[in-house]
UniProtKB/TrEMBL annotation:
The lineage of its organism: Bacteria, Pseudomonadati, Pseudomonadota, Gammaproteobacteria, Lysobacterales. Belongs to the UPF0053 family. GO terms for cellular component: plasma membrane. Residues 37-99, 102-159 form the CBS domain. PANTHER family: HEMOLYSIN-RELATED (PTHR22777), MAGNESIUM AND COBALT EFFLUX PROTEIN CORC (PTHR22777:SF27). Signal peptide: none annotated. It comes from Pseudolysobacter antarcticus. InterPro entries: CBS_dom, CBS_dom_sf, CorC_N, FAD-bd_PCMH-like_sf, FAD-bd_PCMH_sub2, Ion_transp-like_CBS, Transptr-assoc_dom. GO terms for molecular function: flavin adenine dinucleotide binding. This is Magnesium and cobalt efflux protein CorC. CDD domains: CBS_pair_CorC_HlyC_assoc.
Amino acid sequence: MIEELRTAQANGLLSNDTLSMLEGAIEVSELQVSDVMVPRAQMVSVSVDAALAEILDIALSSGHSRFPAHGEDKDDILGVLLAKDLLQCFVVGAPACDIRALVRPVILIPESKRLNILLKDFRQSRNHMAIVVDEYGGVAGLITIEDVLEQIVGEIDDEHDDDDPAEQLHIQAQADGAYLVSALTPIADFNDHLGSNFGDDEFDTVGGLVTSEIGHLPESGEEAVIGQFNFQVTKADDRRVHQFCVRINEA
């Protein structure tokens, strides 16, 4: 089917944009939730027991409109908190705000769910976010309707997205001997370029490796030393790390 569409495009029957969208619509049926979800380590969530000021700060700094709401930890997901629902907490004369009462239900889905099926579920339930659980029932990450649609129509930019084309170059050598490394660099590629031997059984990308080492979603400027490599976060937002400056420490 895709080859036929490409032939039609080559013959001038389809535009490049139309071809890309049709290819995305076909390929989305072959992708699973685990292929595009936001991993647990990169989730921006809120605790229902946190102070209102803390939750508001997370909402304002992240720019997101929805947040997984949890109890004791991220495995105790209670639902989803909408930023707009926080507005009622600031109405003059309103009673004390009960964050738990503002939490809305959220759907739980397995990592293996197909994206085309999930898109139908989103449309039918009118939900925009789902929590992804692993085979043991633990939280593996989250996925939004935007994540699914981007597989069809391409990147959906907003004011919080970083569209720096330099990030597409996974490893860039610098004049001072350092390397700018995209967080999406596969660990195998990093090993090949820099002579490291990091395992990729648990993490696929450099971003996942460093985030795990630091223990939380890193902010710009944070550093981690793993083996002989010093990783400094140079680009990050509220959803994920984008880029590191990597220096090799002399033995």
